[in-house]
Amino acid sequence: MTADVHRLIAFYRSPLGRISRALVREQVVALAEDVSGKRVLGLGFATPYLRFALGTAERVLAFMPARQGASAWPREGPSHTVLCDPLDMPLTDAAIDLTIAVHAMEHVADAEELMRELWRVTAPNGELILVVPRRRGIWAQRDNTPFGQGNPYSGSQLDKLLRDHSFVPIAWRDGLFLPPFQHPLVLKSTRLFERVGRLFGPAMSGVICVRARKQAFPAIPRRKREERFVRVPGMSAATARQG
Q: What pLDDT, in 10s, does the model give residues 176-192?
């Protein structure tokens, strides 16, 4: 099931959404490190996590899938949002230094083809940050948030997907130990849940965050796509004169 952009916006405006955004953003910013002068791409619905890059990156783009829908971002100034097919992004080869994909991997119909496309658009030694729901996490078991939609991943599944498509994981982080409930007591005890959850290990987290670096050669070649064209009936000069 693909998340709808209006539901995503509504979630991030809710108390639970604002808290989860802050918690996940901590992990994303820590993984991204210094983005000065880099070309940064946000894929899926990554705009809640991209603002830190606006002031220092060379450019920041936000690609949103056509099935999801798009919203203008940022609120001030020209929009950086592009509505597109994530399996056929309007970018030249090696155009991006860092991609941050949130609400993307779990919703795409063909994760392997998306990885091939990400390899294509990533510059040499470029990097990729993926944020995906943990398969056995409580957030993936409840569909009242965007992290409960789509296809969740285990750490081993994500590691294999990356390595099979020429991305080497270099850093892992876990996030969202907070239960996905809007109850005021839960929301007021955010840091307590985070500290206690981490004592029990990654299995208690709601999302997996990983940073991976592009390898020089693709492990799996891209599938051949059928050419898109419109067949025009052939017309000879004689046929044209008869008309």
A: 988 898 888 778 888 78
Q: Each residue of 29-51: pLDDT tens digit?
A: 999 999 999 999 999 999 999 99
pTM: 0.86
**What's the CA angle centered on 151, arms 150 and 154, to 5 degrees?**
145
pLDDT tens per residue across span 54-72: 989 999 999 999 989 999 9
The 3-class secondary structure across the chain, one letter per residue, is CCCCHHHHHHHHHCHHHHHHHHHHHHHHHHHHCCCCCCEEEEEECCHHHCHHHHCCCCEEEEEEECCCCCCCCCCCCCCCEEEECCCCCCCCCCCEEEEEEECCCCCCCCHHHHHHHHHHHEEEEEEEEEEEEECCCHHHHCCCCHHHCCCCECHHHHHHHHHHCCEEEEEEEEECCCCCCCCHHHHHCHHHHHHHHHHCCHHHCCEEEEEEEECCCCCCCCCCCCCCCCCCCCCCHHHHHHC
For residues 178 and 19, is the Cβ–Cβ distance under 8 A?
Answer: yes
Query: Are 218 and 53 a contacting pair, CB within 8 Å?
Result: no
Read off the pLDDT of residues 148-205 as tens digits, 9 standing for 90 and up. 999 999 999 999 999 999 999 999 999 998 889 888 877 888 878 888 877 777 778 9
β-strands 122-133, 167-175 pairing: unpaired
Angle at 97 between CA 33 and CA 25, to 5 degrees: 40
Tell me the mean pLDDT in the region 206-233. 69
